[in-house]
Amino acid sequence: MSAEAATTGEAWEDVTPDAARRLVIAAVQAFAERGYHATTTRDIAGRAGMSPAALYIHYKTKEELLYQISRVGHQRSLAMLGEARDTAGSAADRLAAAVRAFVRWHAEHHTTGRVVQYELGALAPDHYTEIVGLRRQTEDAIRTIIADGVAAGEFDVPEVNGTTLAVLSLCIDVARWFNPAGRRTPDEVGALYADLVLRMVGAPREP
Amino acid sequence: MSAEAATTGEAWEDVTPDAARRLVIAAVQAFAERGYHATTTRDIAGRAGMSPAALYIHYKTKEELLYQISRVGHQRSLAMLGEARDTAGSAADRLAAAVRAFVRWHAEHHTTGRVVQYELGALAPDHYTEIVGLRRQTEDAIRTIIADGVAAGEFDVPEVNGTTLAVLSLCIDVARWFNPAGRRTPDEVGALYADLVLRMVGAPREP
DNA sequence: TGGGCGGGTGAGCAAGCGCTTAGCGACCCG
DNA sequence: CGGGTCGCTAAGCGCTTGCTCACCCGCCCA
């Protein structure tokens, strides 16, 4: 297994049996590289070291694989942001923590992130609807923190909704451009982005 | 032709003959809705009101259609940002103008923008290389303005390269989420984003 | 010992894909 | 009037796709 596969795998430890986990990891990598529609079931099975037919023992369809990936990924995002929203501390601290965690995750797991954030259009209609619901909840988590900051007089933003969208947009897009071979580590990008976001909301920062 | 087709069409006025233009417009809409790989040549031809074979009179392959769209779109982006970089005025003015124009374009032509920004992975290797070159130039334009601002003492940024990436990322992602049926007009999003970006670079703004 | 069962394979089917080819009508020019 | 050209179509070719099916192997417990 390549180093890339190892990092992709870390996020899927609890998928069993082993063959099913190998298939998710293979699917994440293939979907991230080529996109859902350009990926063949033969490619996924091949990466997992199995014959094409073996895929259908563990998953009903190719779309179900995408759905599992998308669902788990969105739930993790939501858990991360929800936690940041609900901890004690100033709005600035909570916003910085949320952005740091969210960005770090999208950098570290940029293959998974790419699939989660950019391939949801390939989901079946009912799955798509469910995922959109999760996305609205993650949006709400960020909006709540920003609104809290405004209410407390900590933040000064031109428009809460638009700023929320911009913050999320900024974080999500990390999955698209992040390159593990580049100069920046996930931690560094997280710190940089947390700083940029605090500037965006007009929060006073330590010098 | 729908209202959507009309706005998509505005960007392709100079493609001739008429049938070729109808094909690009149809391709932009189809690629934006479903993605390149999920779009069939039959779908494109159908939207343009022609038989599947007619497509190949005007374009050698389906990929060539994507290449034309991608090339023209990137050239327009580059022209826009290059102009903003080269006009007179403070760095803050130039950065705000660049962001405003770039965001406005990605909102107004969000279908084209979606294809230009998110489908380049489907390009043939040599076309991909060419487009990546154009993208580096657009990145350079933004970086130059930010570096100018830092040199002039107008801006205070944690890191020029990372901030450049973040600014571009923010603007590009507008094409993904912008919804013309939503509450915000392209002008409003442009103004909001220009403000947010000035905050990010620590530029003093009029109150 | 043996039979069921979970996990796997090789071969292949029906459908849909990108693209080609033979031919057709409208038009322009000598 | 006649022939070449341009834009287009109907039909279909060769191939790949997602997915299925008949069969197989190793393991566990009666």
From TrEMBL, chains A, B:
SUPFAM superfamilies given in the database record: Homeodomain-like, Tetracyclin repressor-like, C-terminal domain
Claim: DNA-binding is one of the keywords in the record: yes
Source taxon at top rank: Bacteria
InterPro entries per UniProt: Homeodomain-like_sf, HTH-type_TetR-like_transc_reg, HTH_TetR, KstR2_TetR_C, Tet_transcr_reg_TetR-rel_C_sf
Domain HTH tetR-type, residue spans: 17-77
Annotation: DNA-binding region: 40-59
The keyword Lipoprotein belongs to this UniProt entry's keyword annotation: no
Keywords: DNA-binding
Gene3D superfamilies xrefs: Tetracycline Repressor, domain 2
Name of the protein this chain belongs to: TetR/AcrR family transcriptional regulator
Lineage per the UniProt record: Bacteria, Bacillati, Actinomycetota, Actinomycetes, Kitasatosporales
